[in-house]
Amino acid sequence: MRNLFPAILLASVCACHPGRAEPHSCAGGDQIGEEVFIQGGAFIFGSNDFYPEERPASVVSVEDFWIDRTEVTNGQFSAFVAATGYITQAEKGLDAKSFPEVALEFRVPGSMVFALPATLENASPLTWWRFTPGADWRHPFGPDSNISGREDYPVVHVTHADAQAYADWSGRRLPSEKEWEYAARAGAPALPEHERPLEPKSANFWQGVFPILDTGEDGFKGMSPAGCFEANGYGLFDMIGNVWELTGDIYRPTHAPMTVENLSSGRNEPTQADYPAYVIKGGSYLCATSFCARYRPDARQPMDAYLGSSHTGFRTAR
């Protein structure tokens, strides 16, 4: 039985308000559409210092690859849709034949949008997110919202299939989790959590009383356009914060390899049927220092394969 909501609720533990800030443009905006060559090598993948799903840390290698300098934006995704007529999952909804166990109210076109709690009392992470009919990439906060003037903002409310369709059209692919983390680290060593300072101007994340008040000390209350914060050592923007980013890897709740017992019993590596979610990386504007602090290269969460959200986007690689 497919259950659409646990993965997105887990991924949304770093959450805040939907971010209806006025449109901005940023210095890195003129580099949207560019890509960066990353020379492969060995690095420490994962972390033993924080969340269980990031363990165990191990030394792995990646080959040379190219990766987008910024997240894919509304403008770029609009060009793809104009050229192909593509319709996203949020715009189509879920059909009863393929998803008979999903309640009707969750099969209509729509997506997950954060609902800011009025007070801290009874503010449970399970109530922060709401399936919102009419929310999609063109209407990020619901049917009454739009992306006019937000062409340089990351596209959101896309599923893995939507992101893969864009990548296919552009002759590219989604980065693997290892590639994404390697690129985000930019050659820097993994550090214990208490040694990872993060200043408001270094990434788009939450400042203030979470989840009630975002002071916008970093310049934004909510999502920011691509390229507003300092690039990392590889010249990549927003690898930390702003929006979570989809990878091409199916999510497993550990970095540990499959056990000998599983392999000897005939069980293969997990498939989409085993884990109907993909790995997302990097944290978002919804992450708070006082709460979850998942704006790190080694942080990882699941994203349901069939559902989008208002703080999840992607970039492509080749």
Q: Can you summarize this structure?
A:
By secondary structure, the protein is α+β, with helices and mostly antiparallel strands. The protein is 16% helix and 15% strand. It has a single domain, classed as paralog of FGE (formylglycine-generating enzyme).
Summarize the structure in words.
With 318 residues, this protein is of the alpha+beta class. It has one domain (5-314): Alpha-Beta Complex (paralog of FGE (formylglycine-generating enzyme)). 16% of the residues lie in helices and 15% in strands. The chain is built from 7 helices and 10 strands. It has helices at 5-11, 74-84, 89-92, 125-128, 160-169, 177-185, 260-264; strands spanning 35-38, 41-45, 58-62, 65-68, 110-114, 129-133, 244-250, 277-281, 300-304, 312-314. It has a 4-stranded mixed sheet with strand order 9-8-7-10. Strands 1-4 form a two-stranded antiparallel sheet. The longest helix has 11 residues, at 74-84. The chain is globular, with a radius of gyration of 19 Å. The two termini are 34 Å apart.
